[in-house]
Amino acid sequence: MIFKILNIKEAEGCKYFFVLLFFGLVACQTKEQIQKHSLPYYNTADFTPNWYSQSQLDTLKLHQIANFSFTDQEGKNITQETVKGKIFVANFFFTICPSICPTMTQNLQVVQKAFGNDTNIVMISHSVMPATDSVAQLKKYANRWKIDSQRWHLLTGEKEKIYSLARESYFAEKEIGLQKEKNEFLHTENAFLIDKHGHIRGVYNATLPLDIENLVKDIHVLKSVD
Asked: What's the whole-model pTM score?
């Protein structure tokens, strides 16, 4: 068997190659670990998931849900202070919706049941027809669906503010929503998982039981790391 004796330049080249290979593998492993043990952040209307290291989170300015102020089914004023430091789930509906809204409400009851005793988990459903969804109407809807008003707030308020929050903060209709006229009707099956800092951490089709199961699992993930 013949062995080649490397000269100094070749040896240095091999050493450099293996150093690069090592750090490349470490970087890949770190990225995989980050993705495995945490949820992504959604910062844009195309819902591209992004994972960040802690050092990146300390320096980056991430998208957050804007401040808001609406009224719930009990006549209480619900603002960003209500959910400050809490994990919350948000969606958009209207009480006389004959199609996807009853399905969404029924599926989201799974979340209410899973975290019924947890004061750090809040649910928020914004009406996209606030002109007809008065406090009294929302109260009737809440009673019909056995919604816990301490944990799940059905919100009404100024239509323009609700629509602006939906499209600009939640990206409720993805990119197409940003192209619509502000009074153009808003209808979406999406539900959103928001962390304690107001960041979007999950987007789910609330008409699908499997997506709701994933939502419950992801809330547990956030509870363990956030």
From this structure: 0.82
Q: Report the amino acid identity of residue 90.
A: A
DSSP 143-184: HHTT--TTTEEEEB--HHHHHHIIIIIS-TTHHHHHTS-TTS
Query: Whole-angstrom Cα distance, residue 190 to residue 171?
Result: 10
How do the domains of the chain map onto residue ranges? 1-37, 41-225
CA 64 → CA 91, 200, 212, 220, distances in Å?
Answer: 16, 7, 23, 21
The arithmetic mean of pLDDT across residues 56-60, rounded, is 93
β-pair partners for 203? 192
* Neighbouring C-beta atoms of residue 61, cutoff 10 Å: 6
- The token pair at 147 is 């919604």
C-beta of residue 42 within 8 angstroms of C-beta of residue 200: yes
pLDDT at 185: 78
User: Is 146 within 8 Å of 110 (Cβ atoms)?
Assistant: no
Q: Given this structure, which CATH class describes domain 41-225?
A: alpha beta
User: Cα–Cα distance between 168 and 179 in angstroms, integer?
Assistant: 11
Handedness of CA 207, 212, 218, 224 (dihedral sign): positive
Please check the confidence at residue 28 and state whether its pLDDT lies above 50: no
Q: What is the residue type of 207?
A: T
| pLDDT top residue among 177 and 136 | 136
